[in-house]
């Protein structure tokens, strides 16, 4: 690395791109960074040295980005998210810097295999599922689009648990992602921020004789920032992701230590560090635990303070909305609203009304769910104990808001009660979605249908009061990671056909449309799919000892395990096929052979979800071992589905299962990744499926199931699942087979809870949609037999899914919500 002085600042220039140069840099890192010679370097040594070498190529761009951003005084997006599901960093850095080939060659010249080093990286799993992965896609897009953005979150010491199966049942292991070294992070203890908790509030009279309130906190912790590079794709830009780690302000009490009570001496440290210790593994359902609220306030307080500290000393805070938009990724960071108010009013002594006007322009809120039980509420008692001043501020926001409602709707007590931030039942609590909606400049849902239902069903009173506040931004996924990196074979085929521009301008995939009618192109497309299946087979063999046949239809359902997503409906389909085969009704030779692949983690405390995982594995074991099936059906369920596995599974898939009950999946993003990689979707009219179907066309999508209004109707009159069981013999036989204990000979009653739940409650109407699902699956079989027709549809799925780039999502946010501008590189 060379250094030269420009304008009094040290600027770092990146090493030159050459094989010899890279090999030299790598050896230098190995020797001087890891302290080992090549001859004695472990794979981990080599991986760490490689990561450090690659990141040197990003360093100059990173500093240049920061400098340019400062100079441009551009408005920054501060994305506040409790989760970032990043996936592995090495490959992404390699494609961003266009170094893959050079590195491959340089390592080969040293007798090292790049693929082996790639496998050494443990992905940072700092998120649960779609919400965390979306945040990662968004920061990737903003960097690639040269938009000033800083992502703020938590550096969990343990990310999402590692899932193992013991006799088919999920057992969680801690995710020790930091244990072998963390070459992608840059700790900055000198920028640590103190965060306060607890205590009480007091009133006092200030110098001007005004009575004011202030917070007298009881304890504090330190937030230490760790920076991560977010490289734009081959554009010379690197944005920052800043994740906070909690430390004790006073690590160690020497007096207590000297007195011999060692445990007590480090108690404060242990207590503080707990705050960023572990990611809550609940997806789409909040737990309401005190530590969770501590986490939320901790990272938001650090982030807001960090942003404000970065402003010039003489900055006029009335101009804050010109320089930042805090985007709230669901309600988890909403406590930032009263935090900013507290800083402006209590610390900066800005008048309440002015502070509120500023605050309302600095926040925007994205809602990601429709499930009523997923809307976060915090008991007043807990919030008041942990953050007493914030509770006061929330009360005042609420009072003034309700006064406004009263004025707009006189004599409407019911409405006031419906709209109050404070709920009275079942206990007094703070409705965080309401607070976010009231404070936010904009409120958006994450797919067209979702945004509509958000307005109509979740926040109807608010959308009536402020129709213009509500908008939609349909989710997207980054084509860099989920096509270019995950599917190099398809990427090469596309680039061959239409040039490389699609990677940053995904609508250009449209140019491929005519090729769907080109027999030779279809042949090549099929070859790509087959190669991806073979690649997956290799991964599953070494990773899990799973044997995957590559000559069958690959039917994939990967997502968090949740009843509303209806993995059980998928199981009922498999069990039904199996039952019809063993009862002689269905000739296994008459259907195209299928591999059913699952990937799903269940929240550790979610009993029914864990039962369903057990059921899938037990059905799989039985079906796979039964010679009567003649290999027509195979079930594979590799444990620990994560971003790394997704990158191998999705490109190999033929069929994408998106079968949630209509009106329950806010958007989905896996659905987009499959379509972009040439899988056809079998799906309900839910979330972003609606938009996928509109774009790819009905002929290239297998739609089934109740529509959202029909679901609402059925539920209004009272849903009775047993009726479907009585009236549908195929369904009855499938359920009876599960109930008979066929899949669990050691404990025949083990799946009774699932069976009885389906027959008596079936909250998500799996039985009501069963027959429609089976019919759609028969249409899939027919379509799959037409090899050319299927390939044509698959190509059209790719060509017409450019809309689902997260770059487009980001343009929509800029246009409808942020009004920020790219700082153009060069
Ligand atoms: C998911 C939604 O379920 C999914 O439909 C959507 O595509 C994704 O967010 C991105 O928008 C959600 N994940 C969570 C996680 C938590 C709380 C609420 C949601 S909604 C912890």
Automatic annotation (TrEMBL):
Keywords linked to the UniProt accession = Carbohydrate metabolism, Glycosyltransferase, Pyridoxal phosphate, Transferase
What's the catalysed reaction? Answer: [(1->4)-alpha-D-glucosyl](n) + phosphate = [(1->4)-alpha-D-glucosyl](n-1) + alpha-D-glucose 1-phosphate
Identify the SUPFAM superfamilies for this entry.
UDP-Glycosyltransferase/glycogen phosphorylase (SSF53756)
Q: Name one GO cellular component term.
A: cytoplasm
Write down the EC number. Answer: 2.4.1.1
Q: Which InterPro entries match?
A: Glycg_phsphrylas, Glyco_trans_35, Pyridoxal_P_attach_site
- The superkingdom listed in its UniProt entry is Bacteria
- GO biological process: one example: glycogen catabolic process
Pfam families, per database record = Phosphorylase (PF00343)
Modified residues annotated as N6-(pyridoxal phosphate)lysine in this record:
673
Q: Does the keyword Endoplasmic reticulum apply?
A: no
PANTHER family for the chain: GLYCOGEN PHOSPHORYLASE, GLYCOGEN PHOSPHORYLASE, LIVER FORM
Q: Which family does it belong to?
A: Belongs to the glycogen phosphorylase family.
The role this protein plays is: Phosphorylase is an important allosteric enzyme in carbohydrate metabolism. Enzymes from different sources differ in their regulatory mechanisms and in their natural substrates. However, all known phosphorylases share catalytic and structural properties.
Q: What is this protein called?
A: Alpha-1,4 glucan phosphorylase
């Amino acid at each position: 690395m060379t250094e030269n002085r420009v304008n009094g600042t040290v600027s770092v220039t990146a090493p030159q791109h050459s094989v010899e140069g890279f090999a030299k840099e790598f050896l230098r890192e190995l020797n001087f960074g890891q302290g080992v010679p090549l001859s004695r370097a472990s794979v981990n040594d080599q991986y760490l040295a490689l990561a450090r070498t690659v990141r040197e190529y990003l360093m100059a761009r990173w500093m240049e980005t920061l400098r340019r951003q400062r100079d441009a005084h551009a408005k920054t997006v501060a994305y506040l998210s409790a989760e970032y599901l990043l996936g592995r960093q090495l490959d992404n850095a390699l494609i961003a810097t266009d170094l893959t080939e050079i590195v491959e060659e340089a390592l080969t010249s040293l007798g090292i295999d790049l693929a082996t080093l790639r496998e050494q990286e443990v992905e940072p799993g700092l998120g649960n599922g779609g919400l965390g992965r979306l945040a990662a896609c968004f920061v990737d897009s903003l960097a690639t689009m040269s938009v000033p953005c800083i992502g703020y979150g938590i550096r969990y010491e343990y990310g999402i648990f590692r899932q193992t199966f013991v006799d088919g049942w999920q057992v969680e292991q801690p995710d020790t992602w930091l244990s072998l070294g963390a070459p992608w992070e840059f700790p900055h203890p000198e920028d640590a921020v103190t965060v306060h908790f607890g205590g009480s509030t007091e009133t006092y009279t200030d110098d001007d004789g005004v009575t004011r309130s202030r917070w007298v906190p009881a304890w504090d912790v330190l937030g230490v920032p760790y920076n991560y590079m977010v490289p734009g794709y081959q554009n010379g830009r690197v944005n920052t992701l800043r994740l906070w780690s909690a430390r004790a302000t006073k690590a160690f009490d020497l007096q207590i230590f000297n007195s011999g009570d060692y445990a007590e001496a480090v108690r404060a440290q242990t207590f503080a560090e707990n705050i960023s210790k572990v990611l809550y593994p609940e997806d789409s359902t909040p737990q309401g635990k005190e530590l969770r609220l501590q986490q939320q306030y901790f990272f938001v307080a650090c982030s807001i303070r960090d942003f404000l500290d970065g402003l010039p000393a003489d900055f006029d805070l009335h101009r804050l909305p010109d320089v930042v938009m805090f985007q709230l990724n669901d309600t988890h960071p909403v406590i930032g609203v009263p935090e900013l108010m507290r800083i402006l009013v209590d610390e900066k002594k800005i008048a309440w009304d002015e502070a509120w006007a500023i605050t309302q322009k600095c926040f925007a809120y994205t809602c990601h769910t429709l499930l009523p039980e997923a809307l976060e509420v915090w008991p007043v008692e807990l919030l008041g104990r942990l953050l007493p001043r914030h509770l006061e501020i929330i009360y005042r926001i609420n009072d003034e808001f309700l006064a406004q409602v009263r004025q707009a709707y006189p004599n409407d007590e019911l409405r006031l009660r419906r709209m109050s931030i404070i709920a009275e039942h079942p206990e007094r609590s703070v409705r965080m979605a309401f607070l976010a909606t009231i404070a936010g400049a904009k409120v958006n849902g994450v797919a067209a249908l979702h945004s509509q239902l958000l307005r109509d069903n979740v926040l109807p009173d608010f959308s009536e009061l402020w129709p213009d506040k509500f908008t939609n931004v349909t989710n997207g996924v980054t084509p860099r990671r989920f096509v270019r990196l995950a599917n190099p074979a398809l990427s090469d085929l596309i680039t061959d056909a239409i040039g490389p521009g699609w990677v940053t301008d995904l609508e250009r995939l449209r140019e491929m449309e005519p090729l769907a009618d080109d027999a030779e192109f279809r042949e090549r497309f099929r070859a790509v799919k087959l190669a991806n299946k073979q690649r997956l087979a290799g991964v599953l063999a070494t990773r899990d000892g799973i044997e995957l046949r590559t000559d069958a239809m690959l039917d994939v359902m990967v997502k968090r395990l949740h009843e509303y997503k209806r993995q059980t409906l998928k199981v009922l389909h498999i069990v039904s096929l199996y039952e019809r085969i063993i009862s002689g009704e269905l000739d296994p030779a008459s259907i195209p052979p299928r591999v059913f692949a699952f990937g799903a983690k269940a929240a550790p405390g979610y009993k029914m979800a864990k039962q369903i995982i057990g059921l899938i594995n037990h059905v799989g074991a039985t079906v796979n071992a039964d010679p009567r099936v003649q290999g027509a059906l195979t079930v594979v369920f590799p444990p620990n589905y994560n971003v790394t596995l997704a990158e191998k599974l999705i490109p190999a898939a033929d069929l994408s299962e998106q079968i949630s009950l209509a009106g329950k999946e806010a958007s989905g993003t896996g659905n987009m990744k499959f379509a972009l990689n040439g899988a056809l979707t079998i799906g309900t009219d839910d979330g972003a499926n609606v938009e996928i179907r509109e774009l790819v066309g009905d002929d290239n999508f297998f739609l089934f199931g109740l529509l959202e209004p029909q679901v609402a109707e059925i539920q209004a009159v009272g849903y009775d699942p047993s009726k479907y069981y009585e009236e549908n013999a195929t369904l009855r036989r499938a359920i009876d087979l599960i109930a008979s204990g066929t899949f669990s000979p050691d404990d025949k009653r083990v799946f009774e809870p699932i069976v009885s739940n389906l027959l008596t409650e079936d909250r998500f109407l799996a039985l009501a949609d069963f027959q429609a699902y089976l019919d759609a699956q028969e249409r899939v079989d027919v379509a799959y037999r037409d090899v050319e027709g299927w390939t044509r549809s698959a190509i059209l799925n790719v060509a017409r899914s450019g809309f689902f780039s997260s770059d487009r999502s980001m343009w929509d946010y800029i246009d409808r919500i942020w009004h920020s501008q790219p700082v153009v590189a060069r």
